[in-house]
Amino acid sequence: MLETIVSNAVPSSEMLLAIVKAQTEIAKLGLDLGGVMNFVTERVQQLTGADGAVVELAEGDEMVYRASSGLAATLLGLRLKRHGSLSGLCVETGDILRCEDSETDPRVDREACRRVGLRSMVVTPLRHMDTTVGVLKVVGTTVNAFSADDIRALELMSELIAAAMFHASRHETSELYLLATRDSLTGLPNRALFYDRLRQAIQLAQRSSGTLGILNLDLNDLKPINDRYGHRAGDAAIREAAVRMNRTARRSDTVARVGGDEFAVILPGISSKADAEGLGMRIVEQVRGPFEFEGRALDLDISVGAAVLPDDGVEMTTLIDRADQAMYEAKRIRKEGRAERVFAEG
To answer: Residues 10-23: pLDDT tens digits?
Structure first.
């Protein structure tokens, strides 16, 4: 059953308190629209007891997962056709919509629902400058999982994203897209855009029987910098590392900041695992160069791991896991080497 929802539910005091707290957290994020969307998906999932939550933005004739949590967390960057989907219909009508059972609802993308593992959902429109530009969606693995209170919570949280959109970008929707897909500190692609481009790069490599490399990188010893010199110094270290990574990568590569001190690089057409590892080590050498912040010399260091399609796998999650494992092994070797040096000096 497909419903258009008119929410008249009065929010509970607990929900209102949660919304106020969310507003405070969003204010701290400033113009980081991608960060706001990630925060809201996680918070609305908690408020509604959903199995997952998604922000989908309408881009051309597609709906793109730009933030996701819970059940949908691994689907970041997923692209679905607007036509034939509940999210696309929500964008078209501007109404809050509910699907009680995806197996019997004739107007949802049933295969996409099965891929995600959802059975019921509610979607609410995200409006920017009087235009519906996307949706905030909660999903459940059971039939008719959401109540009127849940729908009201979803509606209120969507308004927080809408407010962030307004303050972050008051002019063009293209500017809105950049703010939603770029890391506010470094200007690099964020986690959402990284996953989007990685999905597309994997599909292209598989169609052409080509190769593709991934690098996962993690800054070492950032916490001591923050503790000793403050977060301004830590932010400066992250920005400088980002500049050096981007400068060292090839023009065809995508360098992204995917977490606090975590980065990743997509290497299309890399010829071998050895070449991917070689580029990774060149990035490491560049990041480790001398760096000063406000007259203080700071030590920049980074660990890297590589994975290559098809040698290390053909699925996105497999490749990311393999690169992660290699990166953590590099961290382990680095720590052991330090311990050995300290022991020898002692």
So the answer is: 667 777 788 778 77
Do 20 and 142 lie in one domain? The reply is: yes
The two tokens of residue 108 are 């949802």
- Is the CB of residue 283 less than 8 Å from the CB of residue 297? no
Average pLDDT over residues 293-321: 93
Q: Integer distance in angstroms from the first to the last C-alpha of the chain?
A: 72
In a domain, 95, yes or no: yes
Please, which residues bridge with residue 120 across strands? 140
Take residue 168 and report the two structure tokens written for it: 């972050």
* Residue numbers of the domain that contains 101: 2-181
What residues are annotated to the active site? 261
| 82 CB-near residues (< 8 Å, 6+ apart) | 58, 61, 62, 63, 88, 91, 92
Number of helices followed by number of strands (H, E) in the chain: 11, 13
Q: Residue 263 — left, alpha, or beta (φ > 0 → left; ψ -120 to 50 → alpha)?
A: beta
Residues 27, 170 share a domain: yes
136 burial via Cβ count (<10 Å: 0-12, 13-18, 19+): buried
pLDDT of the residue at 245: 96
pLDDT tens digits, one per residue of 308-337: 999 999 999 999 999 999 999 998 888 776
Q: Is residue 186 domain-resident?
A: no
152 alpha-carbon distance from chain centroid: 25
- Which pTM was predicted? 0.75
- Write out pLDDT tens, residues 204-255: 899 888 899 999 999 998 988 999 999 999 999 999 999 999 999 999 999 9
State how far the alpha carbon of 149 is from the alpha carbons of 53, 142, 156, 267, in Å: 16, 17, 11, 46
- Closest residue by Cα to residue 186 from 239, 236, 260: 239
Quick one: tokens of 172? 């063009």
Distance of alpha carbon 84 from alpha carbon 108, whole angstroms: 6
The total domain count for the chain is: 2
Q: Comparing C-alpha atoms, which of 197, 191, 199 is closest to residue 55?
A: 191
